Amino acid sequence: MSHDVTPSTDSPFRSEPTARDQAPQFVLPLVVRIEKTAPPARTDALETAARAVLVMLSDERSVGDGEWAEAVRDWQDARIRKVVRRARGAEWRRAEGLPGITVTGKSAQVRVFPPVPLDGWPKDLARLQVSGTDLDDPEPPVEADAAAPVLWLNPDLGMSAGKAMAQAGHGAQLAWWELPDEERAAWRDAGFPLAVRAADPARWDELTTSGLPLVRDAGFTEIAPGSCTVVADHPALR
To answer: β-strand 101-104 against 116-117: which pairing, if any?
Structure first.
């Protein structure tokens, strides 16, 4: 089935106004640790952010009667916003003191927090910088394993690392929504293996019309509304 985000036309990312705009708006905060002397590799940061979103969605505190469940439900009933901020040193230590989950990659650390109202960020997170989250890969990433989930990025869009981290998180969330419970459990139990890669330009059109979950960005920052940013290619959804 081909769609923007969910089978419903009331998409949480679609740029046109929808019923979701009438709901109170929440945002999922993600903070990436970027120390001056040891910044993470870009691809690892993107992959760690995507896993962080999945860890939050699957955490027992986020479902049922869990302490974060109401905030997660409210967030998912409105626009699905994610904002990535950066921290180092004492900023990171303060962020670690707030309720959340730190997910560690090869070189990256990303802390994800339960959703907060759009205008209700905790002060220790609100003061962190959003812009300037630019990272590089010291070496080109290895080819993605076709047998594992891959989040394919639009090769024609230039995005900051922070923006791309949020988009990778969107793609991971769409795959999670689409999966049957059994496949969700298997992915979670395996530690949410995944890769984030720029798609081959010659294959991008094929990916966007494949029926796999597709993120169309609402265009709040950096890129034009309606831009296709990520295709979530999970083997169980092919």
So the answer is: unpaired
